[in-house]
Amino acid sequence: MGNISNHIIWNRFKDGDIDALTLLYRAYTNELYAYGLKLINDEDLVKDSIQEVFIQLIDKRESLQVTATVHLYLFKSLRNKLFEESRSKFKRQHILK
User: Fold this and answer.
1) How many CB atoms lie within 10 A of CB 79?
2) C-alpha–C-alpha distance, residues 63 and 17, integer Å
3) pTM (predicted TM-score)
4) How buried is residue 30: exposed, middle or buried, by Cβ count under 10 Å (0-12/13-18/19+)?
5) Please, what is the angle between helix 43-59 and helix 70-96, to 10°?
6) Could you report the per-residue pLDDT of 16-39, keeping only the tens digit for each?
């Protein structure tokens, strides 16, 4: 997807068009998955984190800022989510020991 069409789809999503979210999800899921696996070697965690990123988008839809690059926003969100989940998993493992 080009930046212009991404921007249009992003704005449609912010305006409540759930089909726009589906387009974003389909357009980026495979790329996000490959990126996530480069960051952490846990397929289930990557898949769950991608789902969480899109759930957070729905929850925060009305307060999201207009972004020039949807691609960067999604990838940064996934990276942050993976790091957050990794830290939580690490803490849980050490508490149980």
Assistant:
1) 17
2) 15
3) 0.82
4) exposed
5) 120
6) 898 999 999 999 999 999 999 999
